[in-house]
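[audit] Reproducing an earlier prediction to check determinism. Same input, same settings, fresh worker. If the tokens differ from the archived copy the diff job will pick it up downstream; this log only records the rerun itself.
[audit] input (450 residues):
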Amino acid sequence: MTGPVKRPGPRPLPRPLPPPAPPRPVRATVPGPPARPGVPPDRPGLPLDMEKLLAARLHAVKVRPYLAAALFALHVVEDRSVPTMAVDAHWRCYVSPGFVERTPVGDLAGVWVHEVSHLLRDHHGRGERWAREHEEHGPGERLRRNIAADFEINDDIYGDGLPRPAGAVLPSLLRLPDGLLMEEYLRTASMSGLAADLAWLDCGSGADGQRRPWELGPDGAHGLSRQQRDAVRFRVAEGIKGRPGEAPEGWRRWAEEVFHPPQPWRRLLGAAVRSAAGAPGVGENHSFRRPSRRSAAVPGVVLPSLRRTPPRVCVVIDTSGSVSDAELGSALLEVTAITRAVGGRRDLVSVISCDAAAGIAVPLCRAENIELIGGGGTDLRSGFGRALRSRPRPDVIVALTDGQTPWPSAQPPCRTVVGLFPRPARAVDEENPHYVPDTPPPWARVVTIG
């Protein structure tokens, strides 16, 4: 006999599921530029082949030795947002790892030369000025400036060891002549027919003056200062002028025009040199390196000769807001020329930055390493006062200025040369429309810079 059948009780209800976890935050990314037609995107995690990239730079230096200083001044930044290679105004070179992997070394060398050419020819500053003067700031206008800048440099940088890459942007695409400047191409052609096919083209702000989201900006690491950039351009220009047969015509023309020739400071300081050499105590430094001619009158006795000492020069540079960056670069070139005029004696040349107040007199090591500080109003009287208080006191004061400054009421007890940056006949002060700057005093020798 079997017992009663046990019926199953009610099944327990399932436990409620926990609420779904909130989605993980995703870091916002900047959309990259359009991909170049026929070029695959970078593989995730692909490392940058730095050895291949630097080998390409060495090849570029070998075939274009006059650009060596500029090529070695570029700092490499790995960035997958860049379609190929690009530069910013602070001489950083942004490089795509995938582009380096799939590009032969010879072609990479051509890209190195292409990108540094944008910087040497100041396409950043020129592109900014064009956009400001013509009120053209959209992405399409940015591309137009990039294309025009490529037209300017691509017509003469290839060949002789640098193969021309496929798809190079040349003026012949629009039946335009070679040898024109970026601004001339922008004035003579709309380039609308190329915009669709070249939407991938992006050489960075160094090519057109418009900053990209992926660039590090002026406060980022490894950027060159304004003075350092001008110094690189100056060294390249001097190298091209020193051996003009190695560079094509476009580069030779650039080297002649990029900087105005410095003033003939040896002649301008000649009177000061003669005055300093004839002043009491200045020519009385004795030297036994060359015996005095009077030794012949005293047999057996070697008399020392008097050694002439070049004058000490203090350069007061106007760093007020009315002086442009290009003029400050020209001022540094003049400092270099002044150093040559005193026999290369950098210990005899000092520099004072001055706007409304004077900075400290800085001894000269290399002109391109001097940091010019200022940007405010102008009062060179403080600069003259600082120069005269320095010890030892200078024999010559050279003031490089636009002339919109008060001048000392009394003549300094040393010779003075004033280098004027050219200005219109009557400069206008926005805060005081009736302001007319004083002319340099009659006791100063005045020359025009540039």
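[audit] rerun output stored. Observation attached for the diff report: Residues 356 and 409 are 17 Å apart (CA to CA).
[audit] end
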